[in-house]
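Hello again, I could really use a second opinion on something today. I've been puzzling over a protein and I'd love to understand its fold better. I'm sending you its amino acid sequence along with the backbone structure tokens. It would help a lot if you went through both lines with me. I've dropped the whole record in just underneath, so have a look.
***
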Amino acid sequence: MPRVFVQGQPVDSYPRPAPEARRGSVRRVTESGEEILRKSCRDVTEFGPDLAALIDDMFLTMHIADGAGLAASQVGADLRLFVYDCPDDDGVRHVGHLVNPVLEPLDPAGRRLLDEGEGCLSVPGAVMDVPRPDRAVVHGLDKDGRPLVIEGTGYFARCLAHETDHVNGRVYLDRLSGRDRKEALRQVAARRDEVLARRAAKAETLTAERPPAPAHEGLSAGGVDRPV
């Protein structure tokens, strides 16, 4: 079986970090409690260089934060869009982006819930068990407006469901009991500063090492494994 899938298609290999990240700029990650994370995002209707640049920025921001997925609302953009660079439970790497994602409903009779650790880049430092189906199918578009269907199992299914929640204005804290939510917030209070300092240090190191981007790049945009 191929070890890497890019936009749902098998490839022989793919660089780390993804080429998209090498073209991007780091953006601030929004945090739980900010208004943009609580609203259903608007559909992407314009496809072009600004959208492509936003995707590049999101890939780099996700890489800096050691994430497996990142939604546009998590970098302050009110758009139905997410990116991912995520393993499944078999160690297969999945890389890509999805515009205007819609999670396909699963037949309850064939659905199996996995209650496993999940984190979120917008809830820095907290990891809690969250029940999610072991399979996810998401329909959407790529950055050029072409239809896409991405299917995942295990941890990658968790990532797809988690990011689709974000474009619908939900964070994983919403799926926790009151007691577990308090525990997650306690973890954030204890670990947030350390997590943000680690991200800042990684961003500084990368900025010092990477060559300047050509003038046509960097356009501004108008689980326990890794947090998503």
